[in-house]
Design goal:
- By secondary structure, the protein is an alpha+beta fold.
- About 35% of the residues lie in helices and about 15% in strands.
- It has 3 helices and 3 strands.
- A hairpin with a 2-residue loop joins strand 2 and strand 3.
- The longest helix has 20 residues.
- The protein is globular.
């Protein structure tokens, strides 16, 4: 229920930024998740969707698509956007807290996904 509420809020945020947000029709989660997994998924999804919406905002045909699903190896969180991508100079340090591409104190999404919860981290 909380994940659904988060996604509804992200639809509103995307609309504010002029971005079309869609959920992949293949998205589906199991009925139960291990303790803490939903919290981690919500935090990662919220940060990554926000980053994607900001990256696509202001560009023609601004879109973000989200897939949240499970497979035998674990959870899948895929966020795709039509933004310009990560500047090459940031690729090697993207998941380090010090590499904020935005204002100081604003870049917790990627570092958290990579380093904050290592056993659930985006790889």
């Amino acid at each position: 229920m909380r994940l659904a509420a988060l996604l509804l809020g992200k639809f509103d945020r995307a609309a504010e930024l002029g971005v079309t947000l869609t959920i992949d029709p293949l998205s589906k989660l199991p009925e139960t998740l291990a303790p803490g997994v939903l919290d981690a998924l919500e935090l990662a999804a919220g940060n990554l969707i926000e980053n994607a919406c900001e990256a696509a905002s202001g560009l023609p045909d601004a879109r973000v698509q989200v897939l949240i699903a499970a497979d035998p190896e674990g959870l899948i969180l895929e966020v795709r956007d039509t933004g310009n991508g990560v500047p090459p100079a940031l690729l090697t340090s993207l998941t380090h807290r010090e590499s904020a591409a935005r204002a100081v104190g604003a870049a917790w999404g990627w570092p958290w996904c990579r380093n904050g919860w290592p056993h659930w981290a985006a790889r």
